[in-house]
Amino acid sequence: MLNRRDFCMSILAVPALTADMSFASPASKEIPAGGEGFPLSDYTPFGYLDNPYHSWNLHRSGVIRSAPGVGFGFYYPAGPGGYFDFAKNGVYEAHLRLGFVINGKHFWTSEDFRPDQLTSPYHSKNVFTYAFAENGADVQCTFLQVDENSLAAKVIVQSGQAQSVQVVAVIEARLGGSAWWGRDGLTGNYDPANDSVWIRSFAAGKVFMLLSDASSHKHFLEDEPNKIPSWLSSPANSEKGLSYYPKPLHAGLLFKIELPAGEKAEHTIVLARAENASLAQEQARKSLGQTHEQLAIKCGEDSAFWTKAPRLEGDWPKHWKHGWVYDFETLRMMVRRPQGIYKLPWDAMQIQAPRTVLAESSIDMWALSYADPDTAKDVFLGLFVNAPFDGVPCSREDGEMNMVAADGSECGTSISWCHPFFCVSSVWARTRDKRWLATIYPWLGRFVRWTLQNRMDRDGFISGKCSWETGMDASRRFLIQQPTGGELIEFLRLVELQAAMSHAAGVMVQFAEILGDNASREEWRKIQQTYADKTQTLWHEDWFYDYDNRNGRLVTSVGRDLGQVAPVFTGIASAEQREKMRAALGKFYADSMATRLPANEDWQDGLHWSSLVLPYIESLWVAGDNELVSQVIETIAERIYTSMDRRQVAPPSSEGGQAQKLGWPGVSCEVWGGQGAYGGEGYGWGAVLPGHILRSLVGFRDPLRPDELPITPNLPSSFMVAGKAYRVTNMRYHEQVLDLTLHALDTKRVRVEGVWSGSIRSFSVKDGSGANVPLQGSGSAWQFEGVNRQSYFVGLAGIS
Q1: How far apart are CA 147 and CA 52, in angstroms?
Q2: Tens digit of pLDDT for each residue in 576-599?
Q3: Residue 545 to residue 570: CA distance in whole angstroms
Q4: Residue 209's closest CA among 194, 223, 224?
C-alpha cells in the first residue's frame, strides 16, 4: 500500500523520487498514525475545492464543486446547495470531466464504477484526488485550482501489465437560468494549431478552453451527453458544436496511453476561463506551466495544517474519522483573506454567498481553534476590528449591512446567538494567549456597552430588534406574523438575551482580572449580577419563559424553546431550578428521536441546528446529565457523518416517508437533519462537531486554571467495549500538544493514557471529590484508570 510520502510524491510527480515508486490504489487505506501531512484514506469521491478569490459584493468568482464520476467545475456566480437559486439565477457552470476506457470498459458516469471502486485518497480544500483500479491498471486524477480562472487535473496511470488505456478530457458547459445578454446558447470548436477545444456562450460571455501537455488522438463536440459513452467506443473527429439554451455543450480531447508493464504515464490537463479566445489560450498555457508549483504549495499548506490538527485514530468509526476531516476542511474554507473593509482574515459563514456574521463566525472559530488556534484568534479579533461600526459586526466585504430591520435599523446577530462570549472564552482557556486577549478585550467591552445602550427596554431588559438579529428567523416564538424576519420584536424579553448578557459580563470580569483592568472590573461584575437577577424574574414553576411587555405576562402559549436553556448553560439557574428543568431538558431529545417530521418540516426540530445544539449540550453538562450528552452527540454524528461520507449523491431510500434532499457528500452542510446533512453546502456551523466530540466525548474540557487539565471521559455506551481504544492526537493546550487515548476496560471503566510533546508534565490526578487517583508513568507519558462519565483533574507542571 502507498504510504503518505509516496502518495504525495506521486501527485507532485518529482521524477527523481517517484521513478521506482510502487503504485497501488489506496482504496482500502485507513487513516495512518502519526502527525505529518494530510491523513490519507478512502474518502467519498464527492466534495468541493476552495476558491479563495470568491466573495459576494466585490468579487464574485464562483464555487468549485465535484462533478459526477471524475471531475470538478466552476458554478458562477454561486452554486446549488446554498443561499442562491442556481436554477433561476445561475449564469453558467463549466466542468472539467475525465473518462477512461480500460480493457474495453467505460468509466464516465458514477454508475460505471463498481460500488466503492472510485474513492478519494486525498480530500482537502486545496487538492482532491480520485483513485480507482481496473484490470491491473491504477489511475489517479488529482484536481486543483491553479489560479482564479483555471482548474487542472494531473492524471497518473500505471499498470502491472502492458495495456492500452484511453483518457478523455471534456469541457461540460451549461448556461444557468439568469436572463442575460449572452444566454442565447453555446458554441464550440477544435483549434488544431494549439490542439485545444473551446466553448463559449453567444452573444457574449466567457470562453472555456481545454488544453493538455499531451497530444490528443481525437476530438469531439456534442450537445447530447448520453452520446459520449458511444463516442468512446467509436471515436471520430467533430469540428464544431452548437447548442441553444438550456441544452449543454460538451467538447473533448481523447488521449491514448500505451503502457508497458510496470510503467507509468503522467499528463496534465487544464480548463481555463477568460473574457475572450486569446486570453483563454494564454490563461490555459500559463496555468499548465504552473500546475506543478501550485500543487506543491497547496499540499504544503495542507501538511502544515494537518501536522498540527487533531485527528481521530484507533477504534473510532471510520465514517466519523472521515466526517472529522470533511468538517475541518470546511472550516478551513470559511477563512477568507482580507478584502474591502476587512483588514484582517474573516469568516465567510458559508462559501456560496460569503458574509461576516458574529454568531456563525464565533462558533466556526471556536471549532477551528482546536486545530488552528492562531487563525481562529485572528478571525475572532477581525470580527470587531473589521466591523463598520460598534455593535454590528455583521456585514459584507464592501461595508454593506446584511441584516436591516423593518424600521431601517442596521442589525448584527445578538449577544446570545451562538454565544460568542462562550466561544471566545473557550479559545482563551486553551491557548492562554495574553497578548491576544489584551488586544480583543477592549473590542469585546465596546460590544457589550453598545448592546446595553441600543438594545435595552424601559425596565433595563435586553431585547432583540428583529428575529433575524436573534438568529431565530421568523420563529412563532415572537407572537407576530413575520413575512421576512425583519419585523420588530422589541416588545419581548427573551430568556437567553438576559442570560447571555450576564454571562458576557462574567467573562469580562475574568478577563479584567487577568489583564489588571481594575477600573472596569466592578462595572462588569455589576452587569453580571443585574442580568442574572433579571433572568430569574423570568422563572415560573419549572422553566424560564419569555416575557411580553405588551400585556405584562410570561409567554407560555408557544411551548418551550431550546434557546431558553441558556440560564442553565450560563450558570444562572440554581441547583434546585436545574433539577426541576431536567425532565424538560431530556424531553427535547426524546421528542426529537420519537418524531419523524416530513422532509419539508425537518428544519423545525431545534436539535437539527448546531447553533442550538451548542447551548443544549452545555446545559446538559451543567445539569450533570453526561450520559444524555453522549447520546445526543453520537446520534448527530451517526446521521451526519454517514450522510457526508456516502458514495452516491442520492440519499438512501426513506422508509414510510419523503426522503430528505441531502447536501453534497464530502462537505459540511447547514442543517444536521434527521436523515443527514442538508441545506447550504459548505456551511461553517455545520462543521463544528469536532469541537463537541473533543469537549464532551473525549472530555477535553476548558481549563479553569492553567496548571490543571480537566478530563471527563464520556464515551457513548455503544463505544464501551472491552479492548477498544479511542485515540486523539494533536490536542493543543497552551502551545503544546497532547495525544490522548481512552481505553474501554469494560462497560464502565476506562484507562486514560496521555503523552505530552513539550515541556508540560502530568504529576497528579484528582477526581471530582478531590480524592487522589493513582497516576502511573513518568516524564511526558502518563496514565490512570477511572470511570466513564466521571470528572478528573490532572495536575500539570512545566507551564511557562
Answers
A1: 10
A2: 999 999 999 999 999 999 988 888
A3: 16
A4: 194
